Amino acid sequence: MINGYKNSYKNVELHKFHRLFSAFWLLVILLSAFYLLSPKNTLFALGLQPTYYKAQNSDFAHECAQCHTLYAPFIQTSDKHEKIMAKLENHFGDDANIDDETNEKILEFLRQNLAQKIKLKMGDKVCQK
Questions:
Q1: CB 78, CB 114: distance < 8 Å
Q2: Rounded to two decimals, what is the model's pTM?
């Protein structure tokens, strides 16, 4: 059927409409593939740049990443950050105490990068809960 002819007891040929229809969908598939592979497509490349927290706040990157994945500050709201930083002696079952100066530096960094301040859809969803 690749050449447009069907092997049967009688020769059946594709009409112009069938050829145009298949050419259209082939073109749609090819354009979709090129679009998805482009670095600025809206499905995969949301325009987000990688964030290097170590350069922004080395205390945050060092202290928090020692025990767990370094979570972006904008996934929590202000009250949740305050609660977490206030109870570091029982941080999800571990003792994560740090000195008061470092605690205040990290907390200030978290306050500056709250979900309420970041213009992302994820930040909006966090703030709704």
A1: yes
A2: 0.53
Please provide the distance, in angstroms rounded to a whole number, between the alpha carbons at the two ends of the chain: 56
Return the exposure string of 80-101: e unless at least 16 CB atoms fall within 10 Å of the residue's CB, then b: ebeebbeeeeeeeeeebebeee
Beta bridge partners of 6: 12
Answer whether 73's CB lies under 8 Å from 110's CB: yes
If you write DSSP's letter for every residue of the chain in order, what string do you get? Answer: -TTSEE-SSS-EE--HHHHHHHHHHHHHHHHHHHHHHSTT-TTT--SPPP--HHHH-HHHHHHHHTTS----GGGS-HHHHHHHHHTGGGBTTB-----HHHHHHHHHHHHHT-TTTS-SHHHHHHHH-
pLDDT for 61-96, tens place per residue?
888 888 888 888 888 888 888 888 888 888 888 888
pLDDT band at 4 (very low <50, low <70, confident <90, very high): low
CB atoms within 10 A of CB 64: 21
Other CB atoms within a 10 A radius of the CB of residue 113 amount to: 20
Residue 31's pLDDT is what? 92
